[in-house]
Design goal:
Length: 285
């Protein structure tokens, strides 16, 4: 306290001058147009960088909140899709009794459910590309789960640790997915060729079918991994196989693998039961 009083005594005249100077500038700016304008310009120059910094910080936190909100909204929409259920609400199979309640209303049995994760590692220019996500076995993630983005197919879970999981990307030669091209409704197999992270190929399409650029390519649903009708991409080119009567379709991917931040993992709730039945099936000799 003594030091503060000594400082004020020593600098009394200087402090008085600074206070009076500020008061004069305020009074001049309020009574005269040009000085007020000049002072406002100087103030704007000094405060604009600070305002931008504050706005950037606020926007960053708001963006995170908006992203979390959008992720929750996407999860709700994904979980509500009809393709997630064994019996839809308007299915005629419901009247047989197995899927009706006491009031005769159709029950829908859920087959797929979704959860979200963040991508923490991603490659797109290697011969074998992978992603890594921030959820693992503690979060219920297991191998062979489908992984989607908000726009379409991303890949399949290939390895799982306690807190993380590796995803074999659609940009990997071993990631081959059963797909169909619409509106022709023709099945084929999706494969990737090294060098182009924006396209894959749909092979073994009969030549006589009417396939056009812009046709949609969707998951077929003929596996225990992907639900049906998930967008993979659109046909951008078609070429004929010179040794057979089949077409190969170049497909522009719906997912932009350069900018993947949030993904959705698909759990098949009846996967073990379905796999057991398939393993018991005997092919005709």
């Amino acid at each position: 306290m003594t030091n503060l009083l000594d400082f004020l005594k020593r600098n009394f005249h200087v402090l008085t001058f600074v206070v009076l100077q500020i008061l004069c500038m305020v009074m001049i700016s309020r009574t005269m147009n040009y000085p007020g304008f000049a002072l406002a310009r100087v103030t704007k120059v000094l405060t604009t960088p600070i305002n931008r910094l504050c706005y950037g910080v606020v926007r960053h936190f708001n963006f995170n909140k908006e992203n979390q909100y959008l992720t929750r909204q996407n999860l709700e929409l994904l979980n509500a899709q009809e393709s997630n259920f064994l019996v839809s609400s308007d299915s005629v199979t419901g009247v047989e009794g197995n899927y009706t309640d006491t009031l005769g209303r159709t029950k829908r049995v859920r087959l797929y459910e979704y959860t979200s994760a963040n991508v923490i590692y991603n490659t797109i220019h290697k011969k074998n590309n992978y992603l890594m996500i921030d959820k693992g076995s503690e979060d219920g993630i297991v191998t062979d789960m489908a992984v989607l983005s908000a726009d379409g197919v991303v890949g399949v879970v290939s390895d799982v640790s306690k807190h993380f999981a590796t995803v074999i990307s659609l940009l990997h030669p071993d990631c081959q997915i059963s797909a169909k091209v619409q509106p022709a409704n023709q099945l084929g197999t999706i494969t990737w060729r090294y060098g182009d992270p924006q396209s894959v190929y749909l092979e073994d399409i009969p030549e006589h079918l009417n396939i056009n650029e812009g046709d949609s390519v969707l998951t077929s649903g003929y596996s225990n991994i992907f639900p049906s009708d998930i967008l993979i991409g659109t046909v951008s080119e078609k070429s004929k196989n010179p040794t057979a009567s089949f077409l190969t379709l170049k497909v522009q991917l719906a997912t932009d693998f350069n900018h993947i931040n949030t993904v959705y993992i698909v759990r098949n709730l009846y996967r073990e039961e379905l796999e057991t039945l398939k393993s018991n099936m005997k092919e005709d000799e």
